[in-house]
């Protein structure tokens, strides 16, 4: 006698992970948005104190740097 076929388990729903977070610039003279995570990297523009930016946590950055959604890097110590 043949065994009944087992039904396949339903596919797990992919987990949606929010890879962005909003942060506020806390630097009175402004904060340099740099092309690469290095102090000698070209400055793309200066972010204003109190400006809201979106960070991209899917991009790894070394030693205190944070990747900004849309491109560029900032020092995380000046964000809140």
Task: Looking at this protein, list some descriptive labels.
single chain; about 80 residues; mainly beta; SH3 type barrels; two-stranded antiparallel ribbon; elongated
Describe this structure in words.
The protein is an all-beta fold and 80 residues long. The chain has a single domain (20-78), classed as SH3 type barrels, CATH 2.30.30.40. 0% of the residues lie in helices and 31% in strands. The chain has strands at residues 20-24, 31-34, 43-47, 52-56, 65-67, 73-75. The radius of gyration is 21 Å and the shape is elongated. The mean pLDDT is 86.
Order of helices and strands: EEEEEE
The pLDDT mean sits at: 86
Q: What percentage of amino acids are in beta strands?
A: 25-35%
The helix count comes to: 0
Roughly what percent helix? under 10%
Terminal Cα span: 68 Å
- Structural class label: mainly beta
Query: Quick one: how many beta strands?
Result: 6
- Give me the Rg, rounded: 21 Å
CATH topology: SH3 type barrels
